[in-house]
Amino acid sequence: MGDPGIIRNRAKVLSTISNARITQQLIADEPGALDELLWSFAPPARGAAPASFGEIPAVTPESTAASKALKKLGYRFVGPTTLYALMQSSGMVDDHVAGCWRAVS
């Protein structure tokens, strides 16, 4: 809590520790289980790239379902917006706008 380089919200720090313990147990019991669980919520590939940032959602049915599944396992601070951001950062979804040099299409 005294480290100014991290978020010092006590609930978030404790949830990070708790989430790490849940993850350790999950993958110790069944290696690859977390990966398999998360990718089971990957949405179908989008047809065309979004034309603008306004077309990119913050929450999807898939991120909501993934959030509920993780919360059922005991994870905390894993809401649907956080899960959608995870889906974007891990490559489960490609939300690069049309014309972006990183866009797949």
Class derived from helix and strand content: mainly alpha
> And the CATH topology?
Endonuclease III, domain 1
Q: Percent of residues in beta strands? A: under 5%
Q: Report the sheet with the most strands, covering strand number, pairing sense and barrel closure.
A: none
Number of helices, where a helix is a run of at least 4 consecutive DSSP H or I residues: 4
Fourth-level CATH superfamily: Hypothetical protein, domain 2
**CA(first)-CA(last) distance:** 44 Å
Mean pLDDT: 91
Total domain count: 1
From the alpha carbons, calculate the radius of gyration and give it in angstroms. Answer: 16 Å
Instruction: Give the SSE string.
Output: HHHH
What's the count of strands?
A: 0
Poorly predicted tracts of residues = none
Features:
4 helices; Endonuclease III, domain 1; mainly alpha; single chain; 105 residues
